[in-house]
Structure formats: structure tokens, C-alpha cells
Amino acid sequence: xxxxxxxxxxxxxxxxxxxxxxxxxxxxxxxxxxxxxxxxxxxxxxxxxxxxxxxxxxxxxxxxxxxxxxxxxxxxxxxxxxxxxxxxxxxxxxxxxxxxxxxxxxxxxxxxxxxxxxxxxxxxxxxxxxxxxxxxxxxxxxxxxxxxxxxxxxxxxxxxxxxxxxxxxxxxxxxxxxxxxxxxxxxxxxxxxxxxxxxxxxxxxxxxxxxxxxxxxxxxx
Length: 221
Prior knowledge:
Layout: E1 7-10, E2 19-24, H1 31-41, E3 48-53, E4 57-58, E5 64-65, H2 77-99, E6 106-111, H3 113-122, E7 131-135, H4 145-148, E8 155-160, H5 168-180, E9 185-190, H6 199-218
Helix pairs in contact: 2-3
């Protein structure tokens, strides 16, 4: 995967990465779109390295996609996500190895389709990531989660109440499914926000990441 497309990397500001954030962008976008989050976060996260790959498949209208665009709830969505999982896992493992980190030092951050993939990948890794943060997206294959899940990282989903592409109830249903499966999961609906991320959502996300890595520091696995 890593040799087939553009991957943006941002070194830890401290000079020594203790954690890795991998950004997974949305449909029709690219890694640079989410790497902009690092501009906002890096001042409070000096020991974190950031990686933002482009998804493998070009979209007809520009940008890239992790999987084919399908209507919400389409029965093939799980299979599409599962087909994309291996490539993302390989990239994550390569980046962790490059930095000399193990899988417990990983944070996955997604937007829209990238949130689908962050959840699909992160919950099936042998070693639990420190956290999964998702914007404007949700879980696919909730009915298979109990059988497939290998780890239980903390999850935070943030979603605009006015999201015209992925309704906010998708976030609420995802949080319920994750909680029912035994995860510590929280959701935050953002009044007035559409299918986007605003400054307040970035602040909430940063607080979640910092809290999760502080907990992992005290309770290593």
C-alpha cells in the first residue's frame, strides 16, 4: 500500500515520536485534507507524529476513496470495508515500525468514509490502539462486531447535527452498538454543523486524544 500512493508525514515537534496519529480521509478527498488537523493540534501534541495517506482508488470526480461509494446500509458496505482493511493495516504497521513504536501507541482519526475505515480497522487489530476518533461517519457491520472484534480502544465520534450526507443518527446508532459491544464509546452532536469539521470539533477531538494517551501512559498494554 505505502508504495502505491502519496503519504504525507509530519514528524513529532519534540523530535522523538512517542505516538502515531494516522488520518483516514473521506470520499473524494486526500491525505492533505486531514493533515490540516495537525496544524491545529501539534502545538499541544509535541510527541505525536502524524501520517496522512491518500486512499488507493481514484474517484471519478477527483480525489480518492477507500471503498466504492454505496448508499447507507447497503449490504456490500461491510465487504468493501473489509477488502480495504488489509492495505491500511499494512501501512499502519510500516509506519509504526519506522518510528519504533508498537500498536498500543497508535491513534486513528477518520472523516466520513475514513471514520468507517478507522473503526473497521482499529477494532480488528490484535493490539488495541490508544484511541479512535471519528468525524461525520459511523460503524458498518454492527451485527458482526462481537464476532470480529479483537480489541476495545476508546472511541469518540463527533457529528454535525445538520449533516446532509451522513445523518447524525448514524453516529448515535454507532455509539450504541459500540457500547453494547463493551467498548467505552462517546458521541458528540454539533449544533449547526453540516458534513464538516469546525474549530470546536477539533478542540473536542484534541481533548479526547490527549486524555486517551495519558490513560495509556498510565496503563500500558
